[in-house]
Design a protein that fits this description.
six-stranded mixed sheet, five-stranded antiparallel sheet, 11 strands, about 35% helix, disordered C terminus
């Protein structure tokens, strides 16, 4: 399986960037073979203190924890272990800052493996699967709106009351709480197809663009979607535009080989530049060694003229 990733991020109209994203620490073939390729996105909670520190701590800790996965541990188990380790780290960081229960972040993580796709999520950052131009939301948001909808179904609340409730978008689960109230995950792999694309996004994207506006970018190559979508978000010039982070992972093909990240664009150019520089350095070293060896070798002494063996008696 080969794939290519792309990403874009903007601070929006906020004073600080509270979104953070990252990818798996290891690209070694042996690790990718059993652990797959990890993508993570965290959105620090703006209504709490130190949202930026929370999201950075979450992404860093999750990457480090997942890097400890062994072949014997399943991907779903490794994701849940990493999530709980991450939650403990954010809680500990809040204690260090003396702001316990006041630091939080969402987190969504996805793993592409030859067996399929696995994910885990807490909060309201989204994971989408785009297949054949159609977008499907895979994650479930942990927000108060879910409880309001249940109240509507039970008849204790009207649809209008639920839609206008001021706490509708409040999170009911997040990283940084003493106990994680809700976790969204899949235990069985979602089988991927060549051409599938994953989108990990903070709410700055899907609360600004509707599904149709997002899908309008699908006519271009998937590695261009983050920059295209970002330009459409910023073109709206919303007064209170939230931070925006968009990550895409496009599956190029499906085959029995282990997962392989394909570099494109700037990364590919830089990779070739590094290779050329390495070759140039090696050639320079060989040239220097050759000159040194030539100068250091003793000059060859010409052979002496053989002495005549014939008798040369005096006349």
């Amino acid at each position: 399986m080969r794939f290519v990733q792309a990403h874009a991020q903007d601070i929006g109209a906020r004073q600080s960037q509270q979104d953070c994203y990252g990818f798996g620490e290891s690209e070694e073939r042996a690790f990718l073979n059993h652990a797959g390729f990890l993508s993570i996105l965290a959105d620090g909670m703006g209504g709490m203190e130190h949202g930026d520190a929370a999201s950075r701590t979450a992404v860093r800790t999750f990457r480090e924890a997942y890097a400890q996965k062994t072949p014997a541990e399943s991907i779903p188990d490794a994701l849940e272990r990493s999530l709980r380790t991450t939650n403990a780290a954010v809680v500990a960081h809040a204690k260090e800052l003396a702001v316990e229960e006041k630091v939080g972040t969402t987190l969504v993580a996805a793993v592409i493996h030859e067996s399929g796709l696995y994910w885990i999520s807490v909060g309201d950052s989204n994971l989408y699967l785009v297949r054949d131009g159609r977008m499907q939301l895979l994650t479930k948001a942990h927000v108060f709106a879910n409880l309001l909808e249940k109240a509507v179904a039970a008849g204790s609340l009207t649809e209008k009351q639920a839609a206008e409730h001021p706490e509708r978008e409040s999170l009911t689960a997040y990283i940084g709480s003493a106990e994680i109230a809700e976790i969204d995950r899949n235990a069985d792999a979602l089988v991927l197809q060549a051409g599938d694309t994953l989108i990990l996004a903070s709410d700055g994207l899907f609360k600004t663009l509707d599904d149709a506006e997002i899908a309008s970018a699908f006519d271009s190559r998937p590695e261009m979607w983050p920059s295209l979508l970002m330009s459409r978000v910023l073109a709206k010039k919303l007064e209170h535009q939230d931070n925006v982070t968009i990550v895409t992972v496009n599956v190029l093909d499906i085959d029995p080989a282990p997962v392989q990240l394909v570099q494109t664009g700037t990364l590919r150019v830089l990779n070739w530049i590094v290779r050329i520089l390495v070759v140039a350095i090696i050639l320079s070293v060989f040239a220097l060694l050759y000159r040194t060896f030539t100068v250091a070798s003793p000059t060859e002494t010409p052979a002496a003229t053989p002495r005549s063996e014939g008798g040369g008696g005096s006349r």
